[in-house]
Design brief:
The protein is an alpha/beta fold and about 325 residues long. The protein is built from eleven helices and ten strands. Strands 1, 2, 3, 4, 5, 6, 7, 8, 9 and 10 form a ten-stranded mixed sheet that branches. The chain binds ligand PBG. It catalyses: 2 5-aminolevulinate = porphobilinogen + 2 H2O + H(+).
């Protein structure tokens, strides 16, 4: 047959033939404002400390964090999420809600420096602050004790809001944590402070490098009794529904790439903003492959971020936030 349209098949290639056509027809867009940078601030260090398993990521001093925050604002990203590493840890994580605790001091400084230019999120958990490394209080028998932990989370939420956090992001996976934090914030005149719930957070092997970065590895056992079990999907929808019923303003799925099915299902199910956290192990894995020349780094990074957006996340928490924002400009 010659000339004319050939019946029987569609010519999908028509819309792929030039970069301009592909750009015009792209269904998913990635913008700097979609990205949030997780940052670590450590007490008692004079210089930023590299994290060996996360090349390019550091534990900041309060000063180096201020500089990094200015750069992040210049790059146009959406916000920062802060993790603190105190010099002194104890069984109850006292430094998490101490007004002069490292993360609260850093929040105060960044809020004073930047005002509302970047959304400052405070990760709310105890694992970086407890000597046993668990996300909650622990009974003498070594069980993570749900309900007493809620009182600690309530106190930490108030301290973080007082320090200047725009958003409180509880990541400890205790039952009832969102309700407890909402009640505490409302009672302390922070009715307008939103809660981004780490609603569907899985007990993941991909958090390995973060435990070096945040120095919060559990000293015994693991987090499987409170974080979600990787085989489960319907349970993520229950966790999300429960957190919304308790007053969450936005929800998160974590990790991101191995859980894109969960991101998609949650995004379909809810009408609040959905975030996904591209975690330390996802970062380390791709950096290692790129360092070996096995993947094109920039291309692969942008592809992962696009995939997470395509699955339905509006916001992506990623250690590549600033670099990716510069590529996107
Ligand atoms: C604290 C917390 C963790 C991460 C974010 N918040 C560690 C954990 O649950 O063990 C992981 C982030 C990452 O791996 O990048 N609960």
């Amino acid at each position: 047959m010659s000339g004319g349209a050939v019946p029987g098949f569609a010519r999908g290639r028509r819309l792929r033939s030039t970069p301009a056509l592909r750009r015009l027809t792209a269904q998913t867009r990635l913008a700097p404002a979609d990205l949030v940078l997780p940052v670590f601030v450590k007490e008692g260090i004079a210089e930023p400390q590299p994290i060996s398993s996360m090349p390019g990521v550091v534990q900041h001093t309060t000063d180096s964090l201020r500089k990094a925050a200015h750069e992040a604002a210049e790059a146009g990203i959406g916000g920062l999420i802060l993790f603190g590493i105190p010099s002194e840890k104890d069984a109850v994580g006292s430094q998490a809600d101490a007004a002069d605790g490292v993360v609260n001091v850093a929040l105060q400084q960044l809020r004073a420096d930047l005002g509302d230019e970047l959304v400052l999120m405070a990760d709310l958990c105890l694992c970086e602050y407890t000597d046993h490394g668990h996300c909650g209080l622990v009974t003498p028998a070594g069980v993570v004790d749900n309900d007493p932990t809620l009182d600690r989370y309530a106190a930490v939420a108030i301290a973080q809001a007082q320090a200047g956090a725009h958003v409180i992001a509880p990541s400890g996976m205790m039952d009832g944590q969102v309700a407890a934090i909402r009640r505490a914030l409302d009672g302390a005149a922070f009715q307008e402070t939103p809660i981004l719930a780490y609603a569907a957070k899985y007990a993941s092997g991909f958090y390995g490098p973060f435990r070096e970065a945040a120095e919060g590895a559990p000293q015994f056992g693991d987090r499987s009794t409170y974080q979600m079990d990787p085989p489960n999907a319907d349970e993520a929808l229950r966790e999300v529904a429960q957190d919304l019923a308790e007053g969450a303003d936005a929800v998160m799925v974590k990790p991101a790439l191995p859980y894109l099915d969960i991101v998609a299902r949650v995004a379909d199910a809810v009408d609040v903003p959905v975030s996904a956290y591209q975690v330390s192990g996802e970062y380390a894995m791709l950096e290692a492959a790129a360092a070996n020349g096995w993947v094109d780094r920039q291309r692969a990074v942008l592809e992962t971020l696009t995939a997470i957006r395509r699955a339905g996340a509006g916001t992506v928490l990623t250690y590549w936030a600033v670099e990716a924002a510069r590529w996107l400009r």
